[in-house]
């Protein structure tokens, strides 16, 4: 399957060479770089551990973001901030919804991938003031945590 990078809103670091969208309007699917299930976007290869599932690209949930419990486990505000920055030269990241996390769990796509811990991972969905859903990627349970608690973070785009 092929997608137009411009139509998808993809931005890649300038060191990465991609086939440009044609026609001035983003081009057609037939002349665009392939977004492959093998982690490639045109000539750009995603780092190890990135998963493409449910039409989304997922970062591993063990990141260089430090937390009280070690790398990857952070409070909700730090997770949300992390997902709004450029990651490996790509922008447009966000926290996934609890439904997207549940779908990732059900697919098994993250299991056995480098950089993943199948534990509670933050979602973007608020339960109320100061609380957000998080999802266990080990057993698929959707939980509720105080924003000051520590869970893993995976970003999607």
Detailed description of the structure:
The radius of gyration is 16 Å and the shape is globular. The protein has a three-stranded antiparallel sheet with strand order 5-6-7. The protein has three helices and seven strands. The protein folds into two domains: 45 residues, no CATH class; 110 residues, Mannose-Binding Protein A, subunit A (Mannose-Binding Protein A, Chain A), CATH 3.10.100. With 157 residues, it is α+β, with helices and mostly antiparallel strands.
Tags for this model:
alpha+beta; Mannose-Binding Protein A, Chain A; 157 residues; 2 domains; two-stranded antiparallel ribbon; 3 helices; 3-stranded antiparallel β-sheet
In a few lines, what is going on in this structure?
With 157 residues, this protein is of the alpha+beta class. Helix content is 13%, strand content 19%.
Question: Helices and strands in order, then pairings?
Answer:
Layout: H1 5-8, E1 40-41, E2 44-45, E3 51-53, E4 56-58, H2 76-82, H3 98-107, E5 120-128, E6 131-136, E7 142-146
Antiparallel strand pairs: 1-2, 3-4, 5-6, 6-7
């Amino acid at each position: 399957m092929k997608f137009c990078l411009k139509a998808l809103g993809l931005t890649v670091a300038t060191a990465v060479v991609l086939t440009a969208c044609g026609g001035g309007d983003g081009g057609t699917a037939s002349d665009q770089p392939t977004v492959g299930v093998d982690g490639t976007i045109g000539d750009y290869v995603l780092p190890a551990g990135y998963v493409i599932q449910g039409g989304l690209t997922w970062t591993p949930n063990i990141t260089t973001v430090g937390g009280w419990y070690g790398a990857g486990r952070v409070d909700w505000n730090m997770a949300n901030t992390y997902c709004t920055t450029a990651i490996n030269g790509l922008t447009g990241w966000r926290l996934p919804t609890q439904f997207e996390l549940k779908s990732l769990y059900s697919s098994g796509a993250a299991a056995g991938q480098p950089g993943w811990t199948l534990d509670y991972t933050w979602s973007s969905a608020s339960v109320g003031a100061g609380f957000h859903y998080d999802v266990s990627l080990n057993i698929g349970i959707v939980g509720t945590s105080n924003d000051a608690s520590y869970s893993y973070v995976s970003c999607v785009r």
